[in-house]
Automatic annotation (TrEMBL):
SUPFAM superfamilies in the cross-refs: HAD-like
Domain of life: Bacteria
CC per GO annotation: cytoplasm
GO biological process, any: L-serine biosynthetic process
Keywords: Hydrolase
GO MF term list: L-phosphoserine phosphatase activity; magnesium ion binding
InterPro entries from the UniProt entry: HAD-like_SerB, HAD-like_sf, HAD_hydro_SerB1, HAD_sf
UniProt-recorded name of the protein: HAD-IB family hydrolase
């Protein structure tokens, strides 16, 4: 029987204080192009909450409206700048500490997010997270194709990604950290789940499980 322990963290609103994709796009496109893209995509953006439009395609459409057929190396450079200069101010210190607590206990830490991997992978390496399961941008001849490669990593897709990642070697214990409806299925899969706003962040016990904060 496996003794594998995995800690799965959502990113936006869980590790960060705000939507990192919005912050990334504002930083990369600049205020004027950001606003123009938002206006072009307004019908799809306002349709997300009532379910009239899909999150993944809308996100991809907005990126294309703001940046067009941007080359991959250009967006990679923008992603690195964002990680170095802007993202640190959006991070929650207590969640960074929780990531390190899990690592100190020998747990595998995985980031599971609907935001694009282009900047999440760069950030994850700075805190010792080797595995990032996130939304992937589609590229054609080194240029952004205007859509996602595969599914948006949100809700049920988070569970699908986790199961595909661990394959036949499922963990004996799964911790899940989230903050929204998009994390519900991941939380239901876990033996130990924490959702922001429902309870204080509990202490970790050395032998597994949560203790009192």
């Amino acid at each position: 029987m496996t003794d594998r322990v995995v800690a799965a963290f959502d990113f936006d609103g869980t590790i960060t204080t705000t939507d990192s994709f919005r912050a990334f796009m504002l930083d990369t496109a600049g205020p004027a192009r950001f606003v123009m893209a938002a206006l072009r995509c307004l019908p799809w953006l306002i349709g997300i909450k009532p379910g009239w439009s899909q999150r993944g395609p809308t996100k991809a459409r907005f990126l294309y409206a703001a940046l067009g057929a941007v080359r991959r190396e250009t967006l990679e450079a923008a992603a690195q700048r964002f990680v170095d200069e802007k993202l640190p101010a959006l991070l929650r210190p207590e969640m960074l500490a929780r990531v390190q607590e899990h690592r100190a206990l020998g747990h595998e830490v995985v980031l599971v997010s609907a935001s694009p991997s282009i900047y999440l992978r760069k950030w994850a390496l700075t805190v010792g997270i080797d595995t990032v399961l996130a939304s992937e941008l589609a590229w054609r001849d080194g240029v952004y194709a205007g859509h996602l490669a595969g599914q948006n990593c949100w809700g049920p897709e988070k569970v699908a990604r986790l199961r595909a990642w661990w394959g036949a070697n499922a963990p004996a214990t799964l911790y899940a950290y989230g903050d929204s409806r998009g994390d519900r299925e991941m939380a239901e899969l876990a033996q130990h789940a924490w959702i922001r706003g429902q309870a204080p962040l509990p202490a970790l016990l050395p032998n597994g499980g949560f203790g009192r904060a």
